[in-house]
Write a structure and sequence with these properties.
The protein is α+β, with helices and mostly antiparallel strands and 652 residues long. The protein has five domains: 2-151, 3-Layer(aba) Sandwich (Rossmann fold), CATH 3.40.50; 166-271, Beta-Lactamase; 291-398, 2-Layer Sandwich (Beta-Lactamase), CATH 3.30.450; 410-487, Orthogonal Bundle (Helix Hairpins); 490-652, Histidine kinase-like ATPase, C-terminal domain (Heat Shock Protein 90, 2-Layer Sandwich). It is 42% helix and 25% strand. The chain contains 20 helices and 24 strands. The strands form six sheets. Strands 2-1-3-6-7 form a five-stranded parallel sheet, with helices on both faces. A five-stranded antiparallel sheet has the order 9-8-12-11-10.
Length: 652
């Protein structure tokens, strides 16, 4: 025994393990000491020897040991009982135990191995030379057991994470056989892991979906992302998101071992998306149906944040064009007369309460260059952290038609007012004419009597004839004035258009002659016939002739030309003059009623609007233009009379 230890001690430098510890429990003090010394000096392990089982547990608690040499026969116990008790404690379950006994018994050896000992030694046959290899074997066994335990714990931890994941996780190997199906997958798909494991993935898993993938991620070096849906037996249609990727393993972690699909239930999200899409579609339909423009303006960014598609229909501008333009450029399209008022309107928003709505009407130039009347109703849409307005929302309504109707209504009101005034003047003129007519009749009668009493060659006869001619002419004017002052007939008659012009010249001729204006007539013969209101047509020509004579003599024309002719069933009348030309700006509002006289312009503010109204009552049109230095009024009137001089039969 001694020589064996010496030989072992000579080789101790070959197995240095100063960090390893060995515990020896043997009631044989001599043998225990020899083992302790051999292990200490030969194997260079720290070795501790104890003789009684009562000291075992305290010793184990005080330090960590790599190997336990355990004697079978001990005072009050045996090695099998101690071994079973030892392995019941999880802290010592991986401690390698070598059982020792003084008698070779296969029964004891079998029981020791069954209880967990890694080897069995018979003291009488003990060879110290085998102890280093035996101890190394025990240490490696312990390391393997610890590695296995750590790996098991890691696997259990990972399995716990996977089972507690809210995502369903399905794995399959390179043969496309399902190898993993976590609890979330059981809940999501309604199939247990026991049922799905071991089944082909394409037949058991992918077949659940309406459009199953045709390839596994193992077939492609890429992660496959997608959304699919399947019909759950109880829950109905389910939407899922899927991320299929390769699984790698092996010692270096680079070996392809299979495929994993991480699945999440996105049914609620899909339903919310569908609801949002339906809401957006509903809002879009509302915006498309509303005949007005909806818009949001960001005051600080000076930008139109949103504008509805109706802007294209009403103003001709594209949505992108409006949203890209700074807001101040849009304000630049406002009519010059309204621009200052509109700018003040938006500046005033900084002082307005949040819930108050403001309204403004203005003119804006559309994409075709035409002025459109718009009405905006706006309110504050969002505020900043301190309550200042950031955005406003508004509805823009095209009120051009309404404005035109208001202008027509205003013109009609002016016309009614003027008609009433003219009726009053007519009554007054009739009264004055009546007062003049009585003495004029006496003058004409007495002049005729005097002429009859005088010889034919009397020198005073010429004077009396001049007085009689002037009297008859005055009587004709009075008769025409009496007729002109009478209310206009509401029944259309067939009349000669030239006769109405002649009567107008008789009424306005003296006024034109006093202004030294020469009249040039080119009236079609025979006179074109028209179905119309005689008195109103006379009013039309009188107003046009008076409008040809401005208040400022410097702008008065020297000549006025009147022409009539038939034109394909219509009557064309042109009245032109060589006075001051009308500017394009004046032409835009020439026929609009002006309650304030035009000053140096034509008429007193209402004549031309009355002319337009009379022409409208005859279903005609009136236009003004500048041609070769002349201002030309062109009037088209439908005749309403057939070739036989009778009223046209509109039903034929």
């Amino acid at each position: 025994m001694y020589n064996t230890r010496a030989r072992g001690m000579e080789n101790r430098s070959k197995m240095p393990h100063p960090d390893k510890r060995v515990l020896i429990l043997d009631d044989d003090a001599a043998l225990g000491s020899i083992l302790r010394d051999f292990i200490t000096y030969t194997c260079q392990y720290e070795a501790i020897h104890i003789e009684h089982p009562d000291n075992l547990w305290q010793t184990l608690a005080n330090g960590k040991f790599d190997v336990l040499f355990l004697d079978y026969k001990l005072p009050g116990s045996n090695g099998i009982e101690i071994l079973e008790r030892l392995y019941q404690n999880p802290s010592y379950r991986n401690l390698p135990v070598i059982m020792m006994t003084g008698e070779g018994s296969e029964t004891v050896a079998a029981r020791a191995i069954q209880a967990g000992a890694i080897d069995y030694l018979v003291k009488t046959e003990l060879s110290f030379e085998m102890l280093p290899a035996l101890i190394e074997k025990a240490v490696q066994h312990r390391a393997i057991q610890q590695a296995i335990q750590e790996a098991r714990q890691k696997v259990e931890y990972q399995a716990m994470l996977l089972n507690n994941s809210r995502d369903a996780i399905i794995c399959w190997d390179l043969n496309n056989i399902i190898t993993y199906w976590n609890q979330a997958a059981e809940r999501l798909f309604g199939y247990s892991a026991e049922f799905m494991l071991g089944k082909p993935v394409f037949e058991a898993y992918f077949s659940l979906f309406e459009q199953p993938p045709r390839r596994s991620a193992a077939d492609e070096n890429a992660t496959m992302l997608g959304e699919r849906r399947f019909r759950h037996p109880q829950r109905g249609l389910i939407w899922i998101s899927s991320q299929i990727s390769r699984l790698y393993g092996g010692e270096d972690g680079r070996q392809l071992i299979g495929t994993m699909d991480v699945v999440r239930d996105i049914t609620l999200s899909k339903q919310e998306q569908e609801t949002l899409a339906q809401s957006q579609h509903f809002i879009k339909r509302i915006l498309e149906t509303i005949p007005h423009i909806i818009y949001i303006i960001h005051l600080r960014e000076n930008q139109v944040r949103y504008i509805s598609p109706k802007v294209k229909d009403l103003l001709g501008y594209a949505i992108e064009e409006v949203e890209a333009a700074p807001f101040h450029e849009i304000l630049g399209c406002v009519h010059p007369e309204d621009e200052e008022r509109v700018r003040f309107h938006y500046k005033n928003y900084l002082k307005q309460p949040p819930l108050q709505a403001l309204t403004i009407e203005y003119r804006l130039k559309d994409a075709a260059g035409q002025w459109r009347w718009l009405r905006n109703v706006e309110t504050i849409f969002s505020l900043d952290g301190v309550g200042n307005p950031v955005e406003i929302i508004g509805i823009c309504e095209d009120i051009t038609s309404r404005k035109e109707m208001e202008e027509k209504l205003s013109a009609s009101q002016v016309y009614v007012t003027q008609t009433a005034r003219m009726a009053s003047i007519g009554q007054l003129a009739a009264s004055v004419a009546h007062q003049i007519s009585n003495p004029l009749t006496t003058i004409i009668a007495d002049t005729q009597l005097l002429l009859r009493s005088l010889p034919k060659d009397d020198e005073q006869a010429d004077s009396l004839k001049a007085i009689l001619s002037a009297g008859w002419r005055m009587q004709e004017v009075i008769d025409l004035l009496m007729k002109f002052s009478q209310p206009a007939s509401s029944v259309k008659q067939i009349i000669a258009i030239n006769d109405t012009i002649s009567k107008a010249i008789l009424l306005a001729g003296s006024h034109l002659r006093s202004a030294q204006i020469d009249l040039h007539l080119n009236l079609s013969e025979p006179s074109p016939l028209i179905l119309g209101y005689e008195q109103r047509l006379v009013d039309l020509w009188v107003n046009l002739l008076l409008a040809e004579h401005p208040a400022d003599p410097d702008h008065s024309p020297r000549n006025i030309w009147i022409e009539t002719r038939s034109a394909e069933g219509d009557i064309l009348v042109t009245i032109s003059d060589d006075g001051r030309p009308i500017s394009p700006q004046e032409m835009e509002t020439l026929f609009e009623p002006q309650l304030i006289p035009r000053g140096a312009g034509r008429g007193n503010g209402i004549e031309l609007s009355l002319c337009r109204e009379i022409v409208r009552q005859h279903d005609g049109s009136i236009q003004v233009s500048n041609q070769e230095g002349r201002t030309v009024f062109t009037i088209y009137l439908p005749s309403g009379v057939d070739g036989n001089g009778r009223e046209e039969d509109l039903n034929n």
